[in-house]
């Protein structure tokens, strides 16, 4: 079996189920940006090393990101979707833990700090890009897994909270955005 298919030579690819589409359609843009996100998470994992406590956690997140991309590559639920509510619940638990264990802030922070935290901020940005591409797909009246949309939304918060926690654990002060209004203290 060859890794190349030659479908892409004229700008086409195949979705789950076999449908042939152009590589720039919203569905391919959505799962392509999720793939980019997963590569950035992989870079972060490689920067950690296997001895890090976060290594296993982020590899699990990568598995779920791949599931999410697979769901967006699947039109009209041609096979059962993979992203499920318990994945979102897990993210919410982690977000709450990392947020509570981080220094309190009331303004936006500049992305950065340690190398790992900066890499996690990139993961957050790539997640938001994937989410925007997913919304483009929804606006085209395409069928999507609603849980996958929720997953992307929570995932960006997860990376933000984790980046802040990583900086806190390293005793790396965050730089606050000077012109920020008061945030993060609103009631739900």
From TrEMBL:
Superkingdom, natural source: Bacteria
Catalytic reaction annotation: 2 cob(II)alamin + reduced [electron-transfer flavoprotein] + 2 ATP = 2 adenosylcob(III)alamin + 2 triphosphate + oxidized [electron-transfer flavoprotein] + 3 H(+); 2 cob(II)yrinate a,c diamide + reduced [electron-transfer flavoprotein] + 2 ATP = 2 adenosylcob(III)yrinate a,c-diamide + 2 triphosphate + oxidized [electron-transfer flavoprotein] + 3 H(+)
Every Cobalamin adenosyltransferase-like domain range: 3-166
Molecular function, one GO term: corrinoid adenosyltransferase activity
InterPro entries named among the record's database cross-references: CblAdoTrfase-like (IPR016030), CblAdoTrfase-like_sf (IPR036451), PduO-typ (IPR029499)
PANTHER family documented for this protein: CORRINOID ADENOSYLTRANSFERASE (PTHR12213), CORRINOID ADENOSYLTRANSFERASE MMAB (PTHR12213:SF0)
Protein name: Corrinoid adenosyltransferase
UniProt source species: Enterococcus malodoratus ATCC 43197
